[in-house]
């Protein structure tokens, strides 16, 4: 029912310079796997097999990663090294991959609108690969797809964050529907600490209904002069319904060096070395 997932990956990754001078930040490895691959695995696990990347200049390595590398694969064919490619080969065989470019950095709302030509008129997922979400039994996107089947409206993943962190996020407020589920009545992009409507921060996982595209088109630039998906979602919440979901799992902010190192240590100890 939901088949497509957008990955906005046009950002520069300035917090990781000089590593990201010529390499996409999404290709930085958490242990031995690029960050973006974790997100794509999560999408495919949730049944979202049509993957759409909204890219920008300097992101070619992402396209190459989700494609065959004949020379390399020929070279290691039949050797013990081939096993390292099993995971990515499965992904390439299972998913389909489309790429479209965001020419100007006009915000997440604009990036999602650029993805309209990939998505068309269907509900779709959005994963911000910087937010690495790990859950052993059921990934966050799979959890959200289940909720979508029940409520048929846009859903954002949220997490409670400490007060001194709140201004880095979109923040939601609303009415509790049941444990872990809130019907959104207010939403603010990166509010100053004293103006935050709650401690519930939006994490980079969304399911959006396709009417969001027209709403984004009518949404003026907001915080930092960029078109914010948070603003468009607030309109959608007022006109219809948007849910906020407190997901199960651990999240790492891999857009920051600190979060990235924490994620690397966690994956090494709990996944890589535990194999
Ligand atoms: C984006 C969204 C923000 C959300 C965050 C999650 O911000 O605009 O609402 O809380 O992702 O990571 P960014 O971190 O891209 O500035």
**Any idea what the CATH superfamily is called?**
Spore Coat Polysaccharide Biosynthesis Protein SpsA, Chain A
What CATH architecture would you give? Alpha-Beta Complex
Structural class: alpha/beta
Number of domains: 1
How much of the sequence lies in strands comes to: 25-35%
User: How does the major sheet shape up?
Assistant: 5 strands, mixed, barrel
Low-confidence stretches: none
Distance between the termini: 33 Å
Mean pLDDT, to the nearest integer, reads: 95
CATH topology: Spore Coat Polysaccharide Biosynthesis Protein SpsA, Chain A
Task: Tell me what you see in this structure.
- This protein has 10 helices and 13 strands.
- It is of the alpha/beta class.
- The chain has a single domain (4-272), classed as Alpha-Beta Complex (Spore Coat Polysaccharide Biosynthesis Protein SpsA, Chain A), CATH 3.90.550.10.
- A hairpin with a 2-residue loop joins strand 9 and strand 10.
- It is globular.
- The mean pLDDT is 95.
- The protein binds 1-O-phosphono-alpha-D-glucopyranose (G1P).
């Amino acid at each position: 029912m939901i088949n497509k997932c957008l990955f906005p990956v046009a950002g520069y990754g300035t917090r990781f310079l000089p590593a990201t001078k010529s390499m996409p930040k999404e290709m930085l490895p958490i242990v031995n796997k690029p960050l973006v691959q974790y997100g794509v695995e999560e999408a495919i696990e949730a049944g979202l097999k049509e993957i759409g990347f909204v890219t920008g200049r300097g992101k070619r390595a992402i396209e190459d990663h989700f494609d065959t590398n004949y020379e390399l694969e020929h070279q290691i064919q039949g050797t013990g090294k081939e096993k390292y490619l099993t995971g990515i080969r499965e992904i390439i065989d299972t998913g389909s991959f489309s790429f479209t470019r965001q020419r100007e950095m006009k915000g997440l709302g604009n990036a999602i609108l650029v993805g309209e030509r990939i998505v068309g008129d269907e509900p779709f997922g959005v994963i911000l690969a910087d937010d690495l979400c790990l859950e052993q039994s059921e990934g966050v996107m799979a959890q959200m797809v289940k909720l979508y089947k029940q409520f048929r409206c846009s859903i954002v993943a949220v997490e409670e964050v400490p007060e001194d962190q709140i201004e880095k996020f979109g923040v939601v407020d609303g009415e509790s529907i049941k444990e872990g589920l809130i019907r959104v009545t207010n939403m603010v992009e990166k509010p100053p600490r004293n103006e935050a409507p709650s401690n519930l921060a939006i994490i980079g996982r969304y399911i959006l209904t396709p009417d969001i595209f027209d709403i984004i088109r009518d949404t003026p630039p907001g915080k930092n002069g960029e078109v914010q998906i948070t603003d468009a979602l607030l309109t959608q919440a007022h006109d219809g319904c948007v849910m906020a979901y407190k997901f199960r799992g651990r999240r790492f902010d891999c857009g920051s060096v600190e979060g990235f190192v924490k994620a690397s240590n966690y994956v090494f100890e709990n996944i890589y070395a535990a194999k």
